[in-house]
Amino acid sequence: MVLAPASRLMTASRAVRSRLGLWLMLSVGLAAGYYALLMAALIVRFGTLPNYITFYNWPASVWKIFRSTPSFSDVPPIVAQEYLIEIGYMNYDFGHGISEWALNILPYKVLQVLVLTALLAANIVLLRSKRNCSTGKRLKMGAASGLGAGFVALTSATMSWVVCCATPSWIVGLSMLGLSVSASFWIEPVGPYLSAAGYLILAVTMLVIADPAPEGLPDGRTTGRDHKISSAKGVHA
Amino acid sequence: MTQKTLGFGLRLALAVALPSIPAFAKTIDIAIGHQSMCTDTYTAGIVVKELGLLEKNLPKDGDYADVDYNITWADYSSGGPITNQMLANKLNIGVMGDYPLIVNGAKFQETDSLRTLYVAGTGYNLKGSGNAVVVPVESDIYSFDQLKGKSVSTPVGSAAWGMLLKAMQDNGITEEVSLKNQSPAVGAANIAAGKIDAHSDFCPWSEIMEFRGTGRKIYDGSEAGVPYLHGVVVRQDFAEEYPEVVTAFLKAVIEAGNWIQENPSEAVDLMEKWTGVEKEVLYIYFSNGGHLTLDPTIKDGWIEALKFDHTVLVKEKAIPPLDFDEWITEDYIKAAYSDLGMDYEADKAKVVDPETANLGLPVEIWHSRDGILKYETLPEFLKAVAEFQGTGAKLNATYVYDKSTGLKLFGKTAYFVQGEDGSYETFLRKPDAESYAAEVKGHVIDLPTAVAAFIPSE
């Protein structure tokens, strides 16, 4: 398989542009669905509905961090931890209330999730555009996209479960699922690599699907070489 | 000529007017992160806030003559978020327990340009009391080694978690205990419902569970033998820009401690209103003979304890390295002592060990109407409880001391040993009580049984 990334990117870009409305709807819808799913998971896991919501002045916080952090290299990781919204459950059985669990909306993470959903939406649009693509290949590409999306989704979760000293972290999701403490901490440093692997899988899958020739593009163009390969495999009628 | 006259007129007008225009006062923002559900932080948190001790001590002359202060307090249920807010410069000062303190210092030192300073303690327990392992009150578990094969929850990353790891190592059951991550509130609820075999937590959760009658301590942090301490961290840039403000804050911390020590029962009454934590629980920490020694000095032993805690965190959570020499400074707390005319070195040299310090302290009854009543001996105490019960008087709580460790205990959770000679002793742990009973040919009883012997007969 010849990758020719530039031409495949062009193909992907054309496919997305030709169905821009669908792509946008999918990108935003999937991101919203992702956060709705996280909230649902918290409600189901803890058996309580959220009883508080707090909005934060994110731009002001970022400006403050920017002004008061001498080294610019320190700014991004600190900004990445800033909240925009916090929705959670406050337990009033002890003291004046303790936030027991919360879904934290961090703009930096939202951006990551939007990149994820944009790639996923591009893959969906590309797969839809390739109507002649074999079911087997569709399944493979779908599975690869799902795997990549799963990695990123898992490591982008920003739930906090107010165990002492815990802040929103992707391993909270694993702990909620019952993964042991030691295993959660062992796996925590792997998060960024897992996330990067997820994006890479999604991007590579997109490039593979965006093969300009064999299954036919929306405008119906193919190349002779790819056509031959496809015919040899008996994929196309 | 006209221009010259106009220029002169303007200069004259400005010269006359400028002094009468009020200068724009500089505002210093002081943002403090504290924890109203962590007793050991109160002298640098809720007490300073509610008594206005920081406002009282802030400098108001010299460079600070025209300064306005904008003081904000933010309450958190753990130390982690305080560190994040300090990194974002939304908090200048944070107060937290030993493990979160270390994470704070290490996370800052991991950055290129930001640092915190550990400037003072708030209080300590020499051997680690404050952390404890609790089981449901009906459980048949009475000692730590019985946790083999059981599930124990703890807020991972907290001092209680560190204590639990050490206790598991000390008892050789590291592999046999299933560790679960649970918040204090969830852990307490699960203990009440009997959903977990045991829960390890920090101050004052174990005592809350005991006071509410849902949990029973089987292991006290003092058995781990590692000091349990809390302290104050300040962003270095803030401390360097406004050193007098940091000193003022530490003067407030010292005064908060003095205020509690002067009248603990009144202090816990107010602290209950401020925090929602029951005053009877707070009394076990803040009273004479309580778990907490209020002392802001930085002792060499504390630095060693913090270094030990750091090794645990490096091993279990892979936290970054921490240069303790760069992080810890006594300069500000020494200045605060000096300003208040107090002897820092004398306080630094003092170490309170409950085992010796609490020897001979009177046992207590908290009468709902008459307040704290003290009794020199356990028979006098038991007789008084019996009499009060006979009149239907409401007793908020009773307090005795563990013979083994000197720790203050709720009378209702203590194991009483009645010796052959009719004498009484009280214990925290059942195995200790049984061992002592065998030694003195006595028997182990609970408070109601002990009191029953003193109920006047007709």
Would you summarize the structure shown here?
The complex is a heterodimer of chains A (237) and B (458). Chain A is an alpha+beta fold and 237 residues long.
- Helix/sheet category of chain B: alpha+beta
Radius of gyration of chain A, taken over Cα atoms and rounded to an integer in Å: 22 Å
Please identify the oligomeric state.
Answer: heterodimer
Main pleated sheet of chain A: 4 strands, antiparallel
Number of domains of chain B: 3
Please tally the helical runs of chain A, counting DSSP H or I stretches of 4 or more residues. Answer: 10
What fraction, in percent, of the residue positions of chain B are helical?
Answer: 40-55%
Cα(first) to Cα(last) distance of chain A is 21 Å
Terminal CA distance of chain B reads 116 Å
Annotated CATH architecture of the largest domain in chain B: 3-Layer(aba) Sandwich
How many strands in all of chain A?
4
Global mean pLDDT of chain A: 80
Order of helices and strands of chain A: HHEHHEEHHEHHHH
In one word, what is the shape of chain A? Answer: globular
CATH topology of the largest domain in chain B: D-Maltodextrin-Binding Protein, domain 2
What percentage of residues of chain A falls in helices of 4 or more residues? 55-70%
CATH superfamily of the largest domain in chain B: Periplasmic binding protein-like II
Largest sheet of chain B: 6 strands, mixed
Beta-strand content bin of chain B: 15-25%
Strand order of the largest sheet of chain B: 2-1-3-10-4-11
Low-confidence stretches of chain B: 16-23
